[in-house]
Sequence to fold (312 residues):
Amino acid sequence: MAHARSHIGIDLGGTHVRCARVDAQGRILAAERRQTSQAGPEAVMRQMADLVGRLREPGTRGVGIGVPGAIDAATGTVLNIPALAGWGHVPLAEAVSRASGLPCLLENDAKAAALGEWRAGAGRGCDNLAYVTVGTGIGGGMIVDGRLIRGIGGLAGEVGHTHVTDSSEPCACGRYGCWQAVASGTALAGRARAAVAAEPSSRIAVLAGGEAVTAFHVAQAAREGDERALALLADFARLLGMGFANVQHCYSPSRIIMGGGMSALFDLLQADMASALRAGLLAGFPPAEILAAELGDDAGLVGAAMIAAEIE
Ligand SMILES: [Zn+2]
Fold:
């Protein structure tokens, strides 16, 4: 009997290396994770080879790796990973391929997640979609005319650093006015902390209970009907919708899929994001449908495996 075909996806993160065996429909069959070794690329590559060895089966055909930084997909080289030291010009695909005997491909992690949602999540059957991950930062991956857009370094669709205002808190990139500086979970938490400082008896402050205020405290207060929290979220949704209009002007998707940690707040944001998108669009652009991602944290893992499936 022929062995069922499968592929291995690896999601390389600053804190964890996650690995899964995935079937042709994008279903995770088995998965494991390790804390990312901080001892440098050689140690992480050994972790990856070990995980692949544990999860592969006779029908496993290849490995795809989602990388949180810039890559050269053609040579399988990591060019730079901001969150991990020592990852300049590392021939990662070749190393994992040599250790496992399986073909291996790299993809930027946001692009891998876009591919995962396209093949197995909220983007199924849609050939023009924008995947936007909203968490501590904002990232993206675009499917245009049925093709994942990559660009040099695999960085096309890096929409979080598009400039949307002349004033903001500093962005993680060191500049001011980036979309992610005003519309990420980090930005929402910062605004909530300022609100709590001005009003220490507010419901948000009570829910935080002396801990650092996060976006999730705001969401919890909003679900209880707290007006301060609802106003913070309405403004946050407006800034997200404004950026979605920029995304639509650039790529003209029919669906915008919101992933990342802030997608847990999707039901609270949906209506205001949609109206800000409509308000920001040039006449003639039918507004994209804004949907929550379906695969959650697994989008990048599934998408990395799908990258491997596509080389066959
Ligand atoms: Zn920036």
Observations:
- DSSP finds ten helices and twelve strands in the chain.
- The radius of gyration is 20 Å.
